[in-house]
Design goal:
37% of the residues lie in helices and 24% in strands. The protein is α+β, with helices and mostly antiparallel strands. The chain has one domain (25-151): PAS domain (Beta-Lactamase, 2-Layer Sandwich).
Length: 153
């Protein structure tokens, strides 16, 4: 009988821990929902949308998810940390030009994926330096290339 109690307690504990860990990162489905909301807002009022994305307000700050946009040349026009950054300068640790890939796959009415590696400096997203694999859902709306990225690990 004790083994049964220990088994069920272990299952409960593992389930609880996995749910608390998963709360830190958004899922692919949550990222897709946010991207669709972002596209709708850009279609309604582009300047307002880019401002909201930069300020991470209006419901566009959920877990670790946020939308960001760049113009056709790759300059970030709406981003919480890097407005003005040239996406073409974004090269991951494997040498992949992530910004170039964003520009290449962005299509109006379609959502495509770009997977890349990213390391966050200490205390920005987590408490230690760690390289993450991230996938960005990318689309084109108006004259903007927009994306929402989620972590794979």
């Amino acid at each position: 009988m004790n083994y049964l109690k220990i088994f069920f307690f272990s299952i409960f504990l593992i389930s609880f821990m996995s749910k608390s860990i998963s709360k830190d990162f958004g899922t692919e489905e949550e990222a897709k929902n946010m991207l669709n909301r972002a596209v709708n807002l850009i279609n309604y009022d582009k300047a307002y949308a880019l401002n909201i994305f930069t300020e991470r307000t209006g419901g566009f700050n959920f877990k670790d998810l946020y939308p960001f946009c760049a113009d056709d040349s790759g300059i970030l026009t709406g981003h919480p940390f890097n407005v003005g950054f040239d996406l073409l300068d974004f090269i991951d640790s494997d040498g992949k030009n992530v910004g170039e890939e964003f520009l290449k796959v962005a299509k109006v009415g379609k959502i495509n994926k770009v997977t890349f590696k990213i390391t966050y400096p200490l205390d920005t997203i987590k408490k230690k330096d760690k390289e993450y694999i991230k996938t960005a859902l990318v689309t084109k709306v108006s004259d903007q290339i927009c994306a929402v990225g989620y972590h794979n690990n």
